[in-house]
Amino acid sequence: MIPATTFAGRKVAVFGLGRSGRAAYAALLAGGAIAATWDDGEKARNAFVEGGGALTNLEDADWSEFAALVLAPGVPLTHPEPHWTVERARAAGVPVIGDVELFAREREARCPTAPFVAITGTNGKSTTTALLAHILHSAGRDVDMGGNIGVPILELAPPAENRVHVIELSSYQIDLMPTLRPTIGALLNISPDHIDRHGTFERYADIKERVVAGAEVALVGIDDAVTAAVANRYAGERQPRCLPVATEGHAETGVACTGTTIALRSTIDSEPEPLGDVAGIPTLRGRHNLQNAAFAAAAAHQIGLDRGAIQRGLETFPGLRHRMENVGHLGRALFVNDSKATNADSADKALSSFDGDIYWIAGGRQKEGGIEPLRPWFSRIAKAYLVGECADAFAATLSGAVAHEVCGTLDRAIEAAARDVARSDAAQPVVLLSPACASFDQFPSFEVRGDAFYAAVARLPDIALNTRAPA
Q1: Cα–Cα distance between 375 and 397 in angstroms, integer?
Q2: What is the pLDDT of residues 438-457, one digit of tens each?
Q3: How far apart are CA 92 and CA 313, in angstroms?
Q4: 75-76-82-83 Cα dihedral, nearest 10 degrees
Q5: What Rg, from alpha-carbon coordinates, does the chain have?
């Protein structure tokens, strides 16, 4: 745990009793603060009390007493409208922050030079975070990983000179982190997402950019126009010192990829310095994973690892659950869990990773634009199996272009796909769960959806399951 000593002796409101909210409450108490905690949900409140927590009804509180409101990232800050606690805080002049800001303030107070890598992007941030942490750990470094992936940030070990914090940040978290100043900030890509929570795409993009704006070293992807413009704004700046990261085309300086090789060109006149190669690594299949690997290799190099250590980390990466997770084989057929693909842009990365004969399971709660952007990959799909709320809408898009079956539920889709893939004569057909949708119509999260896929595949006769990556 990281005690939040920067609020010692002061009263802080904490709203939201999910895991990050409970961690913030514990960290504030451990740091000497007085935490007033609440949640709109009776079930969450009861569980908190049963776990030994003390509640304070914030609706009846005197907000002038609070030094800050620590808001859970899932609670609306601005859109579709501010949560009532946000309105109370603003009316009283109380700053609204998140648990990630408590970490930032504690790092500044305790050890401001402690290595801190902040990673964001619309897609790929979880894989990049897990991959970088794995590379560092395999090289013998003391590394703690958390934030939007796995462990809440305040449950990690405290900042220290010899400890690297590798933190995934969502746009919700960044919006609650006004003093975000990482050692290395990584901005992978930006495409439309979470507009319902940020109002406009421009505001969403501005929030994402904050990860690199205050960094000492900014790693910025230039494969899409939005992040390429960010890199151009910081070109030549002393801080952040910007290193463009390209997997398509090249940059005069920075990190670029030729085939599967990742290399760094420090100056225009220097020769590229190889950092690693992802050829033949099954957990880093596809162009999108080349980008993830390029960012991880670049960050590891900035921290001080050599090419050999980086390559060993790449080659031993076990992959990430729910992100192009190789579940197992049924004969020649590969089953892949890409439940984390909650939008079309993310599913695009999965579909482009296979040359063809894809038996695609898609559907759920539809995002804006549906699957029309995926039309360039329709020729690679042998058949689609549609589930959830948007099954009929997806069927209309696929009509005349892709054979498809409306299955309704994930279990029925897996049964149908397993039946059909057994008839394929391809060298390695693939049953791919890459929904291009949110899970909330049938599952509480993409993790639960992915686990349901794994469990259903595990029940298939004669399936050869792979060992799962750590949760």
Answers
A1: 9
A2: 999 999 999 999 999 999 99
A3: 50
A4: -20
A5: 23
Which pLDDT value is given to residue 236? 80
- Phi, psi values for residue 199, rounded to 5°: 95, -55
* Residue indicated by tokens 């319902």: 196
Q: Extract the tokens encoding 172.
A: 């919700």
The pLDDT score that the predictor gives to residue 95 is 98
Cα 26–chain centre separation: 25
Whether residue 216 contacts residue 150, with contact meaning beta carbons closer than 8 Å, is answered with no
Q: Which amino acid is at 47?
A: A
What pLDDT digit, counting tens, does each position of 250-260 carry? 777 899 999 99
DSSP codes, 154-201: GGSPPPBTTEEEEEE--HHHHTT-TT---SEEEE----S--HHHHSSH
- The pairing of beta strand 254-258 with beta strand 241-246: parallel
Give me 42's structure tokens: 């009776």
Residues in the chain: 471
The owner of tokens 């060109």 is: 265
What is the distance between the alpha carbons of residues 298 and 117, in angstroms, rounded to a whole number?
Answer: 12
Q: What H or E segment, with its residue span, contains residue 126?
A: helix 125-138
3-state SS of 314-375?
HHCCCCECCECEEEEEECCEEEEECCCCCCHHHHHHHHCCCCCCEEEEEECEECCCCCHHHH
> Taking the model in full, what pTM does it have?
0.86
Measure the CA–CA gap between 166 and 153, rounded to whole angstroms: 10
Kindly tell me the burial class for residue 364, based on how many C-beta atoms sit within 10 Å of its own C-beta (0-12, 13-18, 19 or more): buried
What is the rounded CA–CA span in Å between residue 311 and residue 451? 30
Q: Which residue ranges of the chain lie beneath pLDDT 50?
A: none
Q: Among candidates 188, 243, 253, which has minimal Cα distance to 216?
A: 243
Amino acid at position 309, single letter? A
Q: How many CB atoms lie within 10 A of CB 375?
A: 12
